[in-house]
Design brief:
single chain, about 140 residues, mainly alpha, Arc Repressor Mutant, subunit A, 2 domains, globular
């Protein structure tokens, strides 16, 4: 059984997940706000963010924040669609394009491609790899919903 987090470790997690604060998502700032020494805060934050207990607590706090703030996949996608429509109405096409790209990224529609000189050397996804990509996208949808 894993030992529980110390008060300072838990404080790091809380500071790291406090929406709207300057330390939100910033390990170094969260470590300093939790009372760790400023001199080694960056290195310590990096170490803490690899600890499976810290990761589990951060995930728990993120989930609680999403519920408390009524953030759902549907709301985020709806907000993106609204923002995209408003951007188009205001002739802000780059913003509209960015919204569309975020929607596509969420759905795992885009893949990074490598440019190769010889098309015969280009790697095609096997059916197994394609199925794995679809499985991961389905998990993202389930976990965010």
């Amino acid at each position: 059984m894993d030992k529980p987090l110390t008060v300072r470790q838990d404080s790091f997690c809380v500071h790291y997940t406090t929406i709207g604060e300057p330390q939100f998502g910033n390990g170094t700032r969260a470590a300093i706000a939790a009372g760790y020494a400023e001199a080694g805060a960056a290195v310590l934050a990096h170490k803490l963010l690899k600890d499976k207990r810290i990761i589990a607590r951060i995930n728990q706090l993120h989930s609680e924040n999403m519920v408390r703030n009524m953030i759902t996949v549907d709301k985020v996608l709806s907000d993106l669609e609204h923002d995209k429509l408003m951007a188009r109405e205001n002739h802000q096409y780059a913003v509209a394009k960015g919204c569309t790209e975020l929607q596509g990224r969420f759905l795992a529609m885009f893949t990074d491609r490598q440019i190769v000189d010889d098309p015969a050397k280009a790697k095609q996804l096997t059916e197994k790899e394609a199925e794995e990509a679809r499985r991961i996208a389905a998990i993202r949808l389930r976990d965010c919903g």
